[in-house]
């Protein structure tokens, strides 16, 4: 059994012009069609200060390889985000390399001599003016995003949907509440365009509710050494496989790839420990020519991106369609989805 | 709060020699260490009849690229599996190509002219002796794997763990029952080395309980056209991103990649519709030189593989460790995992 996120009648009303209601309803829209139909006012501009343009050495065929990263907004991971801007603006990121490509896990770039079991060279000196980072900042207090308020309106819906929660239909049940039951936390939810998880709901040890960003495909995290080291932001990685959610709350997430992911995910895998390139295959380390904060670029070169508001009607329909595919190819709607299988739509704004 | 799958005392007893019990316990083993320590009798040989060796054209540096596929055992997808052996033995797979590489989704290989929006050529004639396939076989009746028996022993454990089920600690709760609560079904579980999902548990419409294989990273599925077409097995794909579980029960799964996945996951993404290579980039279509059933190969060339029994003590410890990482790098154990983040260990047997 699947339960639509909003009633099927309402869905068809949204999907088809009113004039067509008497006729055979058109095929249900795909998630992509729902996103394409979203009104302009449901798209939210991303601040240029929150975008990094990372230019890799050209591909073997000479084609350009640019990767655009969106940095995590407050209140999450801001010490690492501040440092990442410092690394970019000081030029420290220029001429680093991609050093690790581990299949179904991560691509990592930075100083080839940092914490690299396959390299023994000198580490590159860090720039001044870095701020301290602290592993306690892997999570934030739920109050920082008004989590209780965010979820209050949903309590009735959650109660109504409680039965479906235990019948496996979790997404349809709690996306209504802008949240999903999750295998790694008591709740996962979307907030201002980002996938988050939270322990809200069983605070039986009197701990404050906490919220944290999660490791979905394309998220960008901060390499670190053993705790209490929390990483400076010099070493970054992105997820290129199934969501390694066990890293949540164990390492800082500082952003996500919003364009050019394929330039990283298709790199040759490293044969060394943890997927690092060995010294013998050092020529596979892709050079990173430059990393720039978009707001520092001249107008003509400054990319503009926007994300689909995760509070809007279109996102609700999109998330429901991801959890219950009704477009013509599909036979059986899943009746649910995990949060990393509902990627938040982000698109480049044409100049 | 995290709950170990088995008691921590039992875990340490297993992890450390008895003589060491009085001393400081050693660091908890990583999932990989638990697998490495598994006794030989917990490893199960894979029949050579169930292994395919797919040889791609050499890489640009001249290195060999072989991919080994394990076919799905009975009772799952056997009509497609039988056809895939027929395609391999008739030589039909020789000189096909990889035609589609869609980032965070699938790599697909077969006849470049089959159902390809980027190609308009003639389709290759199919070999004789193919069997009919039917979309009703995307799932099987739970009785076919004695599902009720499989789960009966677990009911007490499940009851004891019920509270943790609703506190987000799903994996630890129900891996004890050899099953996981799942976002896409009422239950997911491991059976004879494969990840499965099932609707067992709320059979309120009087339908028989059904069980089906699921789309985790590296699983191999059968391309098809619109329903009721269920695909012959000529067109195969593998998952190269986050588990696209919405495809479960909508398309046949016929196996999984057990070696050489990186040769497919690192291929350049296609720029055409659905990640197909366009005619302009047809030179990116990787040739597949041959596909052979391992049992047809001479002894010296026949690879041997085995998987870690999903019913054994080592797998239970491994799954628990995946859900609650305690090895030194980790600070906060997740307290749960989704089934596709607990890949079943498969290894090559040395000659």
Automatic annotation (TrEMBL), chains A, B:
Cross-referenced Pfam families, in alphabetical order?
Pro_isomerase (PF00160)
Q: Could you say which residues form the signal peptide?
A: 1-20
By its UniProt entry, which InterPro entries does this protein fall under? Answer: Cyclophilin-like_dom_sf (IPR029000), Cyclophilin-type_PPIase_dom (IPR002130)
Which molecular function term from Gene Ontology is one that the record holds? isomerase activity
Residue ranges crossing the lipid bilayer per the database entry:
none
Which keywords appear in this protein's UniProt record, sorted alphabetically?
Answer: Isomerase, Signal
Which positions fall inside the PPIase cyclophilin-type domain? Answer: 81-289
Asked whether the UniProt record includes Kinase among its keywords, one would answer no
Out of the domains of life, which is the source? Bacteria
Question: What's the protein here called?
Answer: Peptidylprolyl isomerase
- Which taxonomic lineage is given here? Bacteria, Pseudomonadati, Pseudomonadota, Alphaproteobacteria, Sphingomonadales
């Amino acid at each position: 059994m699947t339960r639509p996120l909003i009633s099927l009648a309402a869905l068809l009303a949204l999907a088809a012009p009113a004039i067509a209601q008497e006729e055979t309803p058109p095929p249900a829209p795909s998630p992509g069609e729902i996103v394409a139909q979203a009104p302009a006012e449901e798209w939210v501009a991303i601040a240029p200060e929150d975008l990094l343009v990372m230019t890799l050495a050209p591909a073997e065929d000479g084609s350009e390889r640019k990767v655009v990263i969106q940095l995590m907004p407050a209140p999450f991971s801001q010490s690492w985000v501040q440092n990442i801007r410092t690394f970019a603006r000081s030029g420290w990121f220029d001429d680093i390399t991609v050093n690790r490509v581990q299949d179904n896990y991560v691509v990592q770039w930075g100083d080839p001599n940092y914490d690299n079991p396959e390299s023994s060279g000198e580490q590159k000196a860090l720039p001044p003016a870095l701020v301290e980072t602290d592993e306690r900042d892997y999570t934030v207090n739920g109050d920082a995003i008004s989590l209780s308020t965010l979820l209050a309106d949903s309590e009735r819906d959650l109660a109504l949907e409680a039965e479906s929660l235990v019948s496996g239909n979790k997404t349809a049940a709690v996306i209504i509440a802008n949240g999903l039951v999750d295998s790694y936390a008591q709740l996962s939810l979307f907030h201002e365009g980002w996938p988050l998880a939270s322990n809200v709901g069983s605070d039986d040890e009197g701990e404050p509710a906490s919220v944290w960003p999660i490791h979905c495909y394309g998220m960008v995290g901060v390499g670190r050494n053993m705790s209490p080291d929390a990483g400076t932001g010099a070493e970054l990685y992105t997820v290129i496989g199934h969501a390694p959610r066990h890293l949540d709350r164990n390492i800082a997430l500082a952003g996500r790839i919003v364009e050019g992911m394929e330039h990283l995910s298709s790199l040759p895998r490293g044969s060394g420990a943890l997927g690092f390139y060995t010294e013998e295959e050092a020529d596979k380390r892709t050079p990173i020519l430059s990393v720039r904060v978009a707001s520092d670029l001249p107008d003509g070169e400054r990319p503009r991106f926007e994300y689909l508001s995760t509070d809007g009607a279109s996102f609700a329909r999109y998330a429901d369609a991801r959890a219950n595919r009704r477009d013509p190819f599909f036979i059986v709607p899943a009746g649910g989805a995990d949060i990393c299988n509902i990627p938040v739509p982000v698109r480049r704004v044409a100049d």
